[in-house]
Queue: 4 jobs
Job 1
Amino acid sequence: MCGIVGYIGKNNCIEILYDGLKRLEYRGYDSAGISVLAGKELGHVKKEGKLINLEPLLKQLPANATRGIGHTRWATHGIPNTVNAHPHVDDNVAIVHNGIIENYEELKAALIEDGAVFKSETDTEVVLRLLIKELRNTKDVGEAMKAVIAQLVGAFSLGVMVADQPDSLFLVKQGSPLVIGVGQGENFFASDAMALIKHTNKAIFLNDGEVAKITEDEVKLYDFSGKEIEYKYTTLDMSSESAEKQGFRHFMLKEIHEQPRVMSNMIARLVDVQNQGFNFEELGLAGLDLDRITNISMVACGTAFYSCLLGKYYLEPMAGIPVNVELASEFRYRQPWMNKSTLFISLSQSGETADTLACVKHAKKQGCQVMSICNVKMSSIPRESDVTLYMEAGPEIGVASTKAFTSMLLSHYLFALAFAEKRGRLTPEAKKSAFNGLKCLPLMMDQAVDTGVAIEALCEKYYEYPNFIFMGRGNNFAIALEGALKLKEISYIHAEGYAGGELKHGPIALIDQHMPTVAIAPQDFYYEKMLSNIEEVKARSGKVISVGKIGDKKLMRLSDDYIACPAIDEENLQPILSVVPLQLFSYYVAVKRGTDVDQPRNLAKSVTVE
């Protein structure tokens, strides 16, 4: 989940590398470092903690350096400190790595026996030591890299700089993302295209099993055997401004406020509201053999997994096909039943989630049709899939997902509608209700975002509580889970989500005056049952914060505090609105507690290691 970046050209590279790392810091922020070359002079600085800690050290680097590599770390092997920070440098070789070397212990033991002395606890230093050893046998860095790669097991995107060969940078991709940015008389590389968009919109996305050699004027790609391979360019369609806060205090708050626009853009692209039509190509259905499908498996991690739980509520009744939802981190290991009649749907904002990607590859081997729902074009999961439904929500920098989650929910809903239409199961009445709801959704989402002022004041009352319960029923159960996750992620408050009916089966033992319960209670099919669950909490002196329809006096009387959320006639769309106040509640609680909202401890945005 680390971020790596590199530059080779004629310009001073220090600021370019540091700016690239700032755009990649969402991938990890335990430590950071930069190595640069000025001629054959190697400069090197690194520091534990956030990237800002590295900035004062940049003046130690040679000011005329025109090529270099950088790294921002999410620790796997070795504690977060300066010694374990990347780049790892020795014997005029510098290396940065994203991924995990699974056989590093055996390799390390053999290297130590051979006389190597290790300075860090990382698996990455094993790669450095192997490369130094191979360079004693050959001065050809490409040949040495080939020999090293043959010994590695695991996931590794590598950036290598050798002082004796200052005209080239060397890259390897196996399992972890890597993209090359092509400029005029300069070239770049990074873990994410977001680090490149300030400098170029021309990119080459590397595939697994590829090695690259980049100079100021040239890019060459090879497979692991050393055979040169052809590549194609991709034009990046994001802007550098999309990765800026644009006046908001945090990226998370900006991304919450972007949701009405994102909903509007998605609806306009994926359906024709006026004529009640579907863009089957963009929705992924045009590329699927629907007659083959007798069962559906949805697989994801974290927030994306919770979106799938709600997606099942949409897709199973609309399509009339059984839907199974599972955690990607568990799915492969239980030998799941799948065959050619299975539609396998993976969800990942980044398109690089390691567990989910592994499941996609497994499903392909079983002969499944594979569909992905993703936000990042040209990422690994879409490239492995038969079809992809792109959310196109724009870059999401805040580690805690907001606009990507609501985009996933809308993707599930629109896909389910279109699937039902294709199968002749969408009645005229249901279709009319759905499209009427879609017309209203962006405006109502805007109204939901406007609840932030009242929620900010409410958080003054609750930010010191150490525990919370979130509860919902039906398609709002997934929203309860997501609300609890958001609070945990950014405020470090313990919170759990439950189905309302399950409260009495154990969790109700926790209820007292010290345990606030957040109840999602729109006036839907489950409304009366949710009121009963709230009564059960109140009967045990529990405090209730309810999220319900504007003007719901009955719910207001039952609750200690009440968050008025816009209500939409199409009940299937209500959860997309109801989650917004929970995002804002988590945000303002975290702000009040003084946590780092955009970069919460121990987390990273894109989980690219298993």
Job 2
Amino acid sequence: MGAAGSRDTAPDAGAQNPLTVATEHLRGSSLLLAGKVFAFGLGFASQVLMVRYLSKGEFGAFAFALSAVTLLQAFAGLEMANVVARFLPIYRERREHGKLFGAMLLAFCVVAAGGVLSSGAVVAAIALLGLRPIADDQAIQLLALLALLIPFQAIDNLFTSLFAAFGSAKAIVLRQSVLIPSLRFLLVLGMIAAGADVTFLALGYLAVALLGVVLSAVLFLRLLRRNGLADEWRSSRISWPAGELFGFALPLLGTTLVWALMDASAGLFLGYFHGTAAVAEFRAVLPLAQINLLVSATFGTLYMPIAARLHARSDRAGLNDLYWQAALWMAVLSFPAYLIGCGFAGPVTTLIYGAEYAASAPLLAMLSFAYFVHTASGFNGLTVKVIGKLRYIVAIDLTTAAVSLVLNLLLISRWGALGAAIGMTATMLLHNLLKHFGAWKHAGISPLPPGQVSLFVLLLVLPPVLALHALIPGGIWVAVPLGVGAVVLTIWMGWDGLRLLATFPELRRLPLIGALVRRRAPPG
């Protein structure tokens, strides 16, 4: 796929029209999405095997430890991944190579130091201070072991942003979507074949993470040489834009706090109030709901660097077009996952995890709805960050973080895993609404998708309606054909807005697909 977003080329100095910029983003993101789907498939298969092989207590202990590590790793990076995604494209656009290299070096130092300090603090708190956030010895042991993942994962996230800033989608796919998920899948198979326990799994995760960082470093050095930046490095005088970087990074820790609280605190509260079985009940279906994030997480990798270029050129029309083109593609591509997770939560949960997890079905439906709304409404938060309205971001992040803590504390203590799902859904919807208001007010983004409002409404309401299949004659046998028809209908309705032929002109050359797209394409 010869995409501009997937080649290691420097950004154009001149202005580009909105369609070209949006197309660059969509083509590069499509390559990333293909890799992400492959990675998710392997990751999901790995989790299903773990759930089936490990006892509910063992899986709950492992999930609890990963929840704590995820929470701490989010802070260890001090937002450097988002910082380089915003500032490096701007420095390249202005040919400020001294700042470019200084920003990269500073980001590495901050992330490495933050990761090591966070990891050391966890181990010291458990070993020396007797910290016991959960009454389960195995979970405590796994937490002390998996805490060593924190610096590796923080550095890995930074490399992803660096590759995105230099337009190297292929490097991201190779290391993040192919190598690491494949090794983790083989690790789970090895654990099962050897009859090993969950400690073997934790040690394997550490080995895979270390290998991933080494591979990323090798690929990044090659990328610098291909872009001619190795020579620039030797001839440029390094400057350290610490004020710019930290001035942007520190306020954004609020965003990290919100997502870390939503993703990790539910598992921590469940473990504290109800034990590892409740953690397993919630965490088992969370990856199914998060399938709705596959597209947005992929498209977001290249969105921020391209949006930063448009902001540097004061191209608001291009930014609005980029925003809603990305949102439309994300909504349509995520819809099948939302349809399955919300419309068929009961059958899907019991089919994959067994009758023991049947009570998790309402959690899956609720969380799928929240994640789809987050995806379909577009990159509102990233856009507000790109234009530098950090005070607004800080205000809504702190507000949402407080709401998240209060809701989790009240709801989880009383209703367990169901309370966790209700609290996470409510927090995500509130946070998204506030970000969307900010994107409209501060960045001039249209509050509603131009010409596509009816499509977005249809996408949102169809799965909850189909969730009532148990109440209609024929049940799931009627609902499944209706679901397939819903997918076809949404693609048909959104065809013109997707600009499929403009984005992927190669489709014209394919015998069958080419005939179909030419027939559906509007005249001219």
Job 3
Amino acid sequence: MAPGPASAPAGNLVPVWLDRLASVGWRLLATAALALVLWTIAAVLASVTASILVSLLAAAVLAPLVQALRVRGRSDAIAAAIGLSVGVVVLVLVVAALVVAIAPSVRDIVLAIEAGIATLRDGLAGVGAPGWIGDALTAVEDSVRELIAVNPAALGETAITVGTVAVLAFFLTYFLLQDGDRGWAWGMRLMAPWKAATLTESARRAMHRVSGYVGRTAVLAAVDAMVAGVLLVVLGVPYALALTAVTFLAGFVPYVGGITVTAALGLVILALAGPYAALLTIGVLALTAALAPRTLARTALGDEADANPVIVMLAIPVAAALFGVLGLVIALPVTVFLLTAARSIVMVLGLGPIDEPSATRVAWGVPIWLDRLAQWSWRALVVGGVVWVGIQIIVLVPAVMVPVVLAIVIAATILPIVEWRIRAGWSRTLAVASVTAGSVVLVVIAFAAAIAWTVRPMREVMVASLDGARDLQLGWLEDAVAEIGRSLTINLGGLLGGLLVLALSVTLWMLLVFFFLRDGPRAWDRLTAGLDGPRRDRLDRAGERALDVLSGYMRGTALVSLFGAVTSWLIMAVLGLPLAVPIGVLSFFGGFIPYIGSFVSTVLAFLVAVALGTTTDVVIMAVYTVVFNLVQGSGVAPIVYGKALSLHPAVVLLAVPIGGAVAGILGMFLVVPIVAIISATWRLVIEIIESDEADARGEARESDEAGTPGGTALAESSAT
């Protein structure tokens, strides 16, 4: 039962008003606590959250095109690929045009804004304005000056974050366009039909509103940019193209963007063309901002963003705190989507069968939807707390838990070989000992070869990659490659310097694997001995399924990694590029981190070609990088992981960065099989947990049948 009274006040000591207020209060607290936990998770996993939001936004925009292609007979995969390709091409062209227009004039524009602020401050001081206004303008001037101060370390971290979000969002968008409708139907299958229909219609309406919002915002931003561009050209203001591009960009930030860019244009024009031109510009832009939405409301786009301005103004700082500049852009579409979906969720929670205690709570002023949301919330908090404690045990005691977890994974991987030897007539101890020893020898040889092939050339790979980034004149990419190089160098250097620790770890793993394989079945039998027949059968099936998932994951990941290593080595060897072997080895080990590892290794190979290859080599490696990640991400990996784990690739894609945020490289490697085990066994676990209630319901049903006319005879007949 949930905390707090369910029906009557607690005696005469508690006033009725306090009891009823507490009934509402604990529900609000439970709901708020869950919201706070979700907020914290979203902040910790900001890259994953941003990727999901960006992919939802992109899928909403591209869905009409993909649907039209499906109607014309294209398959889901082809339609999704074409739609995503069109979206990427348009985005790249727009971003490239904006960068070309803005980048050369950024410093000059900032200096012009500073000059405009100084002119305004001097003018206000001349007419006797209060001193605090001048101080405020000075603070603004200092903030503007910071815009051109570049922090290389922060820029490198930002580049890595942006790259991670871009890669995740790219693949997630493809999967949403291809399988989003089927995934939604799968998620709705356990709900009552009317609930599923209500939520489906709400989601469809929300996506339509988001798509309309993007189109409407793009049109309004273009109108503002055209008006600003005409004014700048007529007034003869320098940097007209760059300022027009800035105005277009600012149009995608609701409310704040328009106000900020209007003020910035006014300051620039004040410094370069005088006060009258500045006032004219501000007036025309303000008039455009007021009239353009009213005019557009009469068109097919209409007023798609019907969110209350107060809610939007609150959502903007929240989104900015979570996702930075990206949050300013996605704040309004996400708010529109959430508000549309929330209405339907509240309606679903507030309808349906109502039991008597709930009816009493409604009489006290507690909405039924709030009661049900609170009941879900506090239970979700309890389950989440248990999961968090388990994660903390693994993270805080790595010296014990990491070898155990890795030993379980290795044991599950080689278990089929052990069983094959046992069927051939070997004793279990001999089969386990020989297979374990052989596996350890192979692992040691593989690691030794990898160290020999990569440690010494790794510095050359990173130097060449940095040179390639410099040749492309992309400072952010150079910082990102340097950060990757530091991570690889530290890890490999630590590996060489800790051979004793490595030897002890291998010995511990070997012993754990041996005992798990030899004594695991007996230990499992003793562990489940106290369970009755049906429960034990379900638990046995869950355990067998978990072992199959672990074994399939390792085999599947090895195949994906081998595919990446062979193709990387082959293309570089054919082109005659150096460092093909270390890049291939890096691709193999990187392949054990799905999607992200392969992406990083192929980018490094491309940068090596930029630094050391010809123009033809660079073009071929660029095409290879794109094609390889598309083929592996949307073809090879889904087939392998789908058959081995029965997981959709989108789940694998999201699980990897979550595991990295929780437990680093080891978490990125282990999170996928853990999720696969949960996905494969949760139904059996729920059946085990609910078996008491199911048995009780069955006994109650038999008792009712025995107490009805004819029921006694039926019960006696059954007993006989």
Job 4
Amino acid sequence: MANNPAIKKKKISTRFRNINILLFSLSIFIMVIVVVVLFAGIIDKISMEYAGQYGTSAAESLSLHIDKEIRLVANATRSGLIIDWMYDEFNQEKMDNAHTLLSDMLYQLYSSNLFIIFDETYNEYKVERTRQSGGFASYRTLDPDRAEDQWYFICVNSNMDYVLGLGVDELTHRKNVWIDHKMIYEGELLGVIATGLEFAHVTGEMFAKYDGNNIRGLVIDSNGLIHMDSALMDNQEFLHNAFHVNIKDEFTDPLALAAIDSHLGNISGYFSEIGEPNVIKLYSGSYRYMTIAPIKETDWSVIILSGTPSLFNTSAFIPMGLVAVILLIAFTLATNVVNFRLIFLPLGKLDKSLSNIKQSGEISVYGIERNDELGELSKTIQDLFNKANIDGLTGIYNRRFMEMNLEHTMEMLARSGGILSVLMIDIDHFKKYNDTYGHEQGDTCLKKVAITLKDNITRKSDFAARYGGEEFLVVLPNTDEGGARVIAEKLLNKIGLLGIPHENNSAANFVTISIGATSGQVAYKQHWTDYVKRADDALYESKRNGRNKYTFLMHS
């Protein structure tokens, strides 16, 4: 139907011109409408983006602080000096070596102290930054029945390497982030190294840039409890004591409450990444937007509340008169997009399909179903390809294609160190077949054998080609000896099942084939003829040993 001259072709140039005219007309019409709503829409869109960036920035800031502490403590758990001491707790020399290492480590931490607990004895040792000599600052034994010591048992019974906790430091009476990291060596739990960093210190940098009147930042845990609030950074009672206000008590907006419930309900452990923030537009309260962003390495989240004036200065917007210019630019861009989709995108797909022909043997040329100039071009290319690369008699690839594709395949395999298998196939006593049944039947026999070979090679990268006369070649990239033997056995059986009579065949009373197979790891110095020659040598052995069989020779 595509070749019917009665059907008028759809010219790309005509379609491009008509769509351009239509787009221009629509742009003029839409311009009048857009001027009314564009300003408010742009403000809302940019506000949402800014709110999302504020949330992500805050989460990244806090995550960096915590991640640094976790990595430092994790390094300490792998220290040979500390592991040696854990196996010999009361050896004074090993204790001193461990103390020196931990004291040096404190200068890299935000914390001013470290705790190390032995799992075998529950003994706890404390290292203080202010104590430079004299060994550990304190020594005590944890009590499994003491509520204040339960943090240790929670840590060792968890399925994670470390546990983050929030609590008030007994010495400073300020809220701390506690990092309790297991010490495991060769599968054995030795104890825990713990440290704390003042929450107000690590969040102060994050909240310092916020205007308390227009932007409010909060840090909540997986239960929704507020542990830091930028509006309360000067409130000593809040900084020195545990806080038990739930984030949901701060909102009446149903969208905000639904978003918080959904976020908290999806927390199943520590976040492995910050991910995309969730920005919600609020319709009640003193803030316009709420952003929820998870904090990596924790199960906490940052919530940023902001109003439009706090995000950007609306007076900096380009005057409304420039909207017309923007729309004209948009029209130009749209024209380019249409131009690309109508012309360059199809040509790109055509180019890709031609590349696939070279790389994978894909003979389908893009665009042959189209009823335009590109369709005619694609059909011409398809015809030229078939004439140049398809054997006219059998309908499978010819020797020219085989040589070109095999050379390219070997180049690819040489780069990856891949394995190539090649099968040389010959129809047994084909000359006698022609003499007995005639050349017309001989041609039919060749076609049946060729199609059978092609149909039984299923991978896209594999292919069969007519090598010449009654000889065929099967190329199997990334196929080792075992795979080559399986294919050879399969092809022998399938040709036999055709049941083509051949009374002058010494191997059977029907048409059979002999196969020579070889495999080897491809190297740059090799040439495709090396594999064909080796397969041909193997084929000779198959013929010499009675035919209707395959012989495998490893490629040297």
